[in-house]
Hints:
It is built from nine helices and 15 strands. Strand 13 and strand 14 form a beta hairpin. GO terms for molecular function: ATP binding; fructokinase activity.
Amino acid sequence: MILCCGEALIDMIPTPTSAGADGFVPHSGGAIFNTAIGLGRLGVPTGFLTGLSTDLFGEQLVSDLIASHVNADYAVRSDLPTTLAFVRLTGGQATYTFYDENSAGRSLQPDQLPQISPDVTALYFGGISLISEPCAEFYAALALRDSAQRVIMLDPNIRPGFIRDETRYRARLDRMIAVADILKVSDEDLDWIVPGSGTPEDKAIDMTAKGPRIVIVTRGSAGASAYFADGRVVTVTAQTAVVVDTVGAGDTFNSGVLAHLSMAGLLSKPRVQDIGPADMENALALGARVAAVTVARAGANPPWAQELNI
């Protein structure tokens, strides 16, 4: 099983009303939630670890996880409110305003780390849950505790405007990168993590020296590349799609990458060292396929395996 560890929230999506003005419709979302949903729909055994409210939005999130065959048993339930993210769409690009103070997800503490069963062979982390405290320390502690026995994939999905203490955030992110087997970043993320005038290729290779064996760099419509610590590189092009919006595109891409590696039997600590360029090329290609479907739909709505004939 892949255990996705991070935020679940409600995206309030602007939608025209009968009166003509936009209203906001609640859609289940969050970067890590979206990846978990994508994995479940692709038929990969998937669990989800987060702080979930017992309020009506928390029940919506649980219901949607179960509907996409994601195990929610690891979720830590409380009566604190659910995080809300109000979305603004401009030319298909999404920007967010978060309401996250004292929420169920944000309030997780490191002393709440669960015991995880042996059938969980990989942990996936990322998103705003790595910024917001105290939950960010909860996830960092989990990654450091379990990295010796489980594969770690990390996608920080950096939002500079959301970071209140950059020094503290960078230090925590460095600790997590050091124990990650696979790091996925956008080209913008990479430039933030490694400032300066170096090429994306040089920066990605530099990142492999900090811990990850493989660094994936996505470049939107320009495709994605995987860089190995030994200098090997593979690149795939993005698939053509009529873009409705980009909500959940990167999250769904990650689900495709993880799904391929899982189906190939490579997402375990003994096998992760066997991942080669051909494996990553196929993983990136599946990521591109599922992301192309998602951007052609409104909101984060990953495809099911039968839609892709897999």
